[in-house]
Write a structure and sequence with these properties.
The complex is a heterodimer of chains A (73) and B (370). Chain A starts with a helix and ends with a helix. The longest helix of chain A is centred in the N-terminal third of the chain and has 24 residues, at 3-26. Chain A has 73 residues and is mostly helical. Chain A contains three helices and no strands. Chain B is an all-alpha fold and 370 residues long. Chain B starts with 7 loop residues before the first helix and ends with a helix. Chain B is globular. In chain B, helix 3 (38-46) packs across helix 8 (176-191) and helix 11 runs antiparallel to helix 12 (265-294). The chains are: A mainly alpha (73), B mainly alpha (370).
Amino acid sequence: MDESLIIYLGLYTVLIFTDLLPAIKKKDKTALWVFIPVFAVTLAANIMASMGFSLPSINDEIKQILQTTLHMK
Amino acid sequence: MTNHSITGRQMRCILTMYWSGSLIVMGSYKETKQDTWMVPILAGILIFPLLWIQTRLIRIYPEKNLFEIIFETFGKIIGTIYSLFFIFFSIYLAAVIVRIFGEFIQVLNMPETPQTFTIAMILLIAYWSVTNGPENIGRLSKFLWKIIWFSILMTFIIGLKNMNLENLKPVMETELKPLLSSGFTACMLPLGESILCLSLFSSVKKTENIKKIYLIALIEFLIVNLAASLRNLLILGPTVSALYYFPSYQAISVLSVGDFFTRIEVLIGINLLIAGFIKICVCIHAASLGLAKILHAPNQKSLIAPCVMLAITLAIPFYKNTLQIFDFVPYFVIFAIPFEIILPVILWMTAEIKNRIKSAPTQTKTAGKQ
């Protein structure tokens, strides 16, 4: 665990106050349907990353796909 | 979504800033050596058909954004799938840019500050800018573009005494293949990405000359890019320039005016950062607009935060070090082809056919009356 965790928590707290709470107040269902799952998944992923778990990189996947399909070196 | 809040001039600045946002990774083309200055010119020529397609799409569907055009052209189901590709590309691009800036700031300016902090701060400010609407991005671009012009011009003038024209010789010695390959990379890396800027054109007045906006923006960007390439080459020389990942930064670091005006390289860092910031804003705006269109949300603003959260989560594990950023460039060029060439070309062809079919009965009717 490092300072990244505090940074993530700080950022997510700001987003809760500026986005999530107004959406709940307005009963904006569409926004909540997107916000809550994205919020939960990304927060979990970021906490895991700050605890030292290595998250898969999209770029590595893209690189691998292109290397196997187009034989790029 | 027709709110005429962006003027033609602001849109021009947005486009130029958007393209300049990738200058940070465009700096060094090791294969082209002393002919690197030709790369932006080649890229400018290669991009013409794609920019023409974009202007044509705006002409067919005036005052509509990218996602409205997609839905009008393909209908609901295919339109949703098509939009998802562009939403993914927007978030991906925002994440890539913010991650590169995180790396850039850590390597050159703030080695002790965690990248997470830099990335989070940039994205948070981008979130607020996008929340304030496209007109805010337009105003910001118009103001910040002047700073970029001024600093490029200033560093070029200050650097004149350190420039050696011999660094450009022998001219045209590079073979055509690496030159074209670098030109194509430069064409795909910042220029082709402008398809996402279509998301802002719904806010531009119908009376504005779209072709003129694109053309002047392209010329301005090419002048800045050419000036930066020439400055780096003339100051550092092709061999030394190829050694660095950020040659602009290194070229400026040797400049000074007497003893009182030194460390000008900070200017270049600020330049690249503000241009990249506008690019991140445009990407986040495009992604949230696309999400709003798919989900039939009345307001796009409530969907900006999820895009920011996705961008930050994707950004962190992208690269392990600076080397990987530049190693991935050839892969990015191939990966971007569907988003920057194939999908826009299919969209334009379908829109053109639909437009012809639509206008055909009216033409027959008028001919019949005559």
